[in-house]
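Objective 1b. Sequence-to-structure analysis of Adaptin ear-binding coat-associated protein 1.
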Amino acid sequence: MAAAELEYESVLCVKPDVNVYRIPPRTSNRGYRASDWKLDHPDWTGRLRVTSKGKTAYIKLEDKVSGELFAQAPIDQYPGIAVETVADSSRYFVIRIQDGTGRSAFIGIGFTDRGDAFDFNVSLQDHFKWVKQETEISKESQEADTRPKLDLGFKEGQTIKLNIGNMTSKKGGAAKPRVSGSGGLSLLPPPPGGKIAVPPIPPPSSTAIANHVTPPPVQKSSNASSADILLDLDAPAAASKAPVSATTDLWGDFSTASSAVPNQAPQQSNWVQF
């Protein structure tokens, strides 16, 4: 598909009121002056539209009611001969109109409001600023196509070496840990074997088991009574095991408590006689 078929017409500016004047031919190079025109009696009044198609802009003078085209001026460059400003006012311009046969003529146009004249001028400036940028981009792309392209692919047999921190080197050793002052965490390298030795769990201590001995149950004599247990509280171990005489008083005498045990020297009694 041709590039011309992809172009579409866009509207840049629309002004509902514009006056058209017949202007005298230029007699010198001093430029056009709006004061030489009959400003109070315009030759035609209608609507102005500024459109663009591709890189070319068009000034179209149309009827306000029917929209019928009165005249149009194609513009390839601005500022240029197709659109010129007058020397004595910012509201009036001179444009070059063309018909379908290729004939051209210069006419004057003017706006009642200065804001409309400003918008008309800015719309043409913005369009041709865009045209200039597109031309530069197209030129740069063509120059880039003519330049030899860089081949960044790997050649046959070509390799690349990556140096990654904390990775095992070719000799089997671990890489050096990063310095803590470098901003990152310093981690120690893993052991060469890749396994961490776990200390064995010690067996329970034999000393603790030996010390933990359950005492044998106390065997009581069938002849012993509860009174014998009371007498054993203050008597030594050897005396508590001696047989108790049946004739001895169960509670004993407070003054002779130490002589109740046979074969022992008399000792000072710890009991107090009442």
